[in-house]
Amino acid sequence: MAYNFFTSVFFLFFSITSTTPKHEKAPATLASNEAVSGAEMLYNSIKSHSVTMPAYECFSKAFNGFNKLKAQGKIKKDLLTVIDFSLSSTAKRLWIIDMATQTVVYNTLVAHGRNSGDEFATTFSNAASSNCSSLGFYATGELYMGKHGESMRLDGLEQGINNNARNRAVVMHAADYVNEDFAKQHHRIGRSQGCPALPNEVNKEVIKLIQGRSCLFIYHPSQSYATASRLLS
Q1: Each residue's pLDDT tens digit, 160-194
Q2: Whole-structure pTM value
């Protein structure tokens, strides 16, 4: 009888102490499941039916800036163009994302400035005649006919980072040196004077689509840019 009594007490104690932690941990598990950001949810949604996407680190920064600029009325369209200058110039490092339909519309090559680097862009400037690319958020402007044919002006939206874009004539235009054959021969594509130049075969379609106050974001994991930008935080 004594053995049965103490055995019963032991099992009763064990069952109480073993079930209590499970009960206490349940709310923490629920909270972690709910802690998914809007950027992550949208990223996963787009990625689920798109062949390619920028890295999440790049996209999340573009997403946050896009929302702030939309709220401020500085951009009008639901199109987000993302350029990732941390990638090789031989990679298709420009994406146009339709935020309304959550689809990637274009993914293509894009050039950086000749003084920003060779295969990889590493140096950026807002200064006139620097021949460098500038990072950050832009609003797309109007179309015009220039020396490269049909082109599109850009307005830098970040003071001290890219606000000299229009004065520097940093525009989006077509270029013969932005193509895969050039990349295979030189292990990089050609470089511009700071413009995000596009392949001839997609330039007209792209600039007609994104003209007129859509958002363009040029990304690089630069600490100096991250510190200076007011649109990333």
Answers
A1: 999 999 999 999 999 999 999 999 999 999 999 99
A2: 0.85
Q: Roughly how many angstroms between the first and final C-alpha of the chain, as a whole number?
A: 69
Rounded CA separation 92/158 (Å): 25
Cβ contact 138:153 at 8 Å:
no
| Sheet of strand 171-172, all strands in order from the earlier edge strand to the far edge | 103-108, 94-98, 79-84, 215-219, 136-146, 149-156, 171-172
SS3 191: coil
> Among all chains, which residue has been given the structure tokens 């951009």?
75
Q: What is the dihedral of CA 131, 136, 140, 143, to 10 degrees?
A: 10
Tokens for 59, please give them: 């996209």
Contacts of residue 38, defined as CB under 8 A and 6 or more positions apart, other chains included, come to 63
Contacts of residue 88, defined as CB under 8 A and 6 or more positions apart, other chains included, come to: 119, 120, 188
